[in-house]
Write a structure and sequence with these properties.
With 192 residues, the protein is an alpha/beta fold. Helices cover 53% and strands 14% of the residues.
């Protein structure tokens, strides 16, 4: 039995001459040359690649979890996703489902040893990017604290006497919190 392939394509706009057919015709030719059977075409039209949730991408991921195909074929990585985090997470999910991922224009085929090496490099770069962001945030917070800036949400200014009065009238903690527009935890903190 030949491998079942899911073809994914995306165009950002539909009224500026972009046509998913440019992508899918090459993808179909590539699949045919490899002897793959095309299970379905998943085409998002007029949807930004920066969005992790796209109608056809969501359908593709749901079908992947049902093991309806063996390979996901995209024309180019940026058609699948612009976020490195999203790409790495999706590729990891495909790997866990034993689904290969092939990017036609990028010469990336995760069913090969060199493709898996590239995936590991991409994953390492994503982890590096997350760590850099984390370090920058921590450095920024440290700098802000050194300048006297309070980090976190501002403290709610709630009068303990008002809370006691409402409790005496029989109001529940939740009712008081709703009335004063604060969390129940804030009430406990102020009264303790």
């Amino acid at each position: 039995m030949s491998a079942r392939v899911a073809i994914y394509a995306r165009v950002s706009t539909i009224n500026h001459g972009q046509d998913a057919g440019l992508q899918t015709s090459e993808q179909h030719q590539f699949a045919e040359a490899r002897g793959w059977w095309v299970f379905d075409d998943y085409i998002d039209q007029g949807v930004s690649g920066s969005k992790d949730s796209r109608p056809e991408l969501n359908r593709l991921m749901a079908d992947a979890r049902r093991r309806k195909f063996d390979i996901v074929l995209v024309w180019k990585l940026d058609r699948f996703g612009r976020s490195l985090r999203h790409l790495v997470n999706a590729l990891a999910e495909f790997e866990s489902l034993n689904i290969s991922f092939v990017s036609l224009s990028d010469n990336l085929d995760l069913s090969t040893a060199s493709g898996r090496l590239m995936f590991n490099i991409i994953g390492a770069m994503a982890e590096f990017e997350r760590e850099l962001i984390r370090e920058r945030v921590k450095a920024g917070m440290k700098n802000a604290k050194a300048k006297g800036t309070r980090i976190g949400r501002p403290r709610a200014n709630v009068d303990p006497a008002q809370i006691a009065c409402l409790r005496a009238e029989g109001f529940t903690w939740r009712a008081i919190a709703n009335r004063l527009q604060v969390g129940v935890g804030t009430l406990y903190r102020v009264t303790s």
